[in-house]
Amino acid sequence: MSSVPRDFVFNRFEARQGMTWLAQAYAMFSHQRLLWVVLLLAYYALLLALRSLPYLGPYAMTVLKPVFSVGLLAAAWTQERGGKPTLNQLFAGFRANIWSLLPIGVFYVAGITAAVFASSLVDGGKLLDLMSNAGSLGEEQITAALAEGALEAGMLFSAVLAVPVLLATWWAPALVVFQNASAGAALVTSLRAAIANWKPLLTYALGVFFYGAVLPTVLMGVITLLLPDALAGPLGLGLLLPYGIFVAATLQISDYISYRDVFHAGETLAPLAAQETGRS
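and the corresponding structure tokens:
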């Protein structure tokens, strides 16, 4: 850790801290549910609008995602200091160091793309063939392809290679905005801090899997078993849709909570009025 610049010193936590991040994020969300839901829906609407652009839409969405995510970080930062999340904060990234945020998105696109193409080293190109021909294949053909051992190995290999990319970009936008880091320094520092905190991040990932996948699946299964199909579908949708929004909001806020803990643990929060308004 001595090689990390002094401005980017980070803390290490035990495994249980991962669940604390989720709990604290949900507590923040629960105090301003409506505002966060509106902010989150606007955030996803902006990303979907970018994705719908011809040809380059998916790439534009991914490259600009760190810029828009700064708005959610700014909203959490503001609420923690007594303010309220607002829609105009979604564009805070464009008023911050955008030229350091954009390379983070480019790095993410390049890293994930490289991880996917690397699957050919294991499965002989089966995953790439499936992705390029998915539109012309039926559901049974796709299911059969996914059951192939070579393809599964290729997917697993790509997922393993993608992990460092995800960790490097995890706290990078926050480091750019809150600590004025360059894109390269932010990516390196985020990766180092994430590796040092692999235990709480693993616990965090298990918590996300439980609340984001296991719990709704079990709930839907119980509803399906107890109620006729005519009722199970609408009731399940009525319960899982708001639940999914609540989970998504909690995860977005947890990005800020985990960053604050890892890089600013124990710091005293100054009142919002005493802070620079440019951040919010």
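(Above: one complete record from the training split.) Residues 1-6, 274-280 have pLDDT under 50 and may be disordered.
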